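Thread title: Can someone regenerate the structure for this chain?

I was given the following input by a collaborator and told the matching structure tokens would be attached. They weren't. Posting the sequence so someone can regenerate them.
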Amino acid sequence: MERVRIGIVGSAFSSNLHAEALAQVAGAVVTAACSSRRDRVEDFARKWNIPATCTDYRQLLERKDVDAIVVGIPNDLHREVVVAAAQAGKHVFLEKPIAHTLADADALIAACRHAAVKLFYAETICFSPKYVRAKQLADEGALGALYMVKQSEKHSGPHAEWFYDIGRSGGGALMDMGCHGIEWARWMYGKPRPKSVLAHCQRVLHTSRTRGEENSVVLLEFEGGAVALIENSWAKPGGMDDRIELYGSEGVIYCDLLGGASMQTYSQRGYDYAVEKAGDTTGWTFTASEEGHIYGFPHEMRHFVDCILNDQEPRETGEDGRATLEIIYAAYESAAAGRRITWPYAPAHPERVPVQSWLDALAAVPI
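Best answer:
Regenerated them for you:
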């Protein structure tokens, strides 16, 4: 195989980032795109010069010119599409989080394993050039013994309405973005087993739109004593804020993903796009340049394609996505119980969305 022929399932925000990234990857060619809305998928295909479209993912999976699919659709649809793709013999690149329930995650992982197709867990910040460089420095011993890492991702809320429906998403800001920080922390430390989770969740801004949390803080302890602090918010105005901190016995790193890569811009009338989740472009703004590159999408896709072409094990697998989701379940349970959750841990209800334990606790509090 000299190239990987790819079908994209989805046509919204993440799918545009995927298409842009794939256009930069030698050995990759996007042959088809699928979305439930005909007008949207046709616009998407024209934008990225994709020759074929359909509105039913099963039609895409039947195509002989598709070796692998890139999935960027609502969380509750992941299991159905990935299991079908595995049965059709297609490799899968799956946008985070792996699924909206642990039961669904287990099912899609098992389907891919049974079909002997590769399942790639999309975790961009493990491929973001700045964050990769920070890990290289830590691995080289520049910071001495690494004992604490911190990742925060904050903005004013998601693009699409389905994110606010916990039945589809599985949770709020912790589910949506905490999966980034949790897997990044696992990766930074070499993917050790977790030891405990202590979490707090809040509803502060979008209370009329969602029952999920919009602000969360997670303290994650690993075996050996190293810790990670993960902060996420849908309540921070002004666009995306994404940064990390690394603390070692002999050094420290502070890294702002978008800082230094953006332009300070002032506009009285506003303009089309500044940066992800920026709600307004009037006045002073920070305008992103090569946003997809900064986030690590081309690097992630290049790894995806290389693993298929060279039959290599992905850096981020379905099992990694599951491990992250299990920690998210424990974090919601911690926020519900107001105490630390320790390992070994197994969710009592893996078929329920993760946030449900926290919602049950809220409902039990007398008004």
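The first helix runs from residue 13 to 22.
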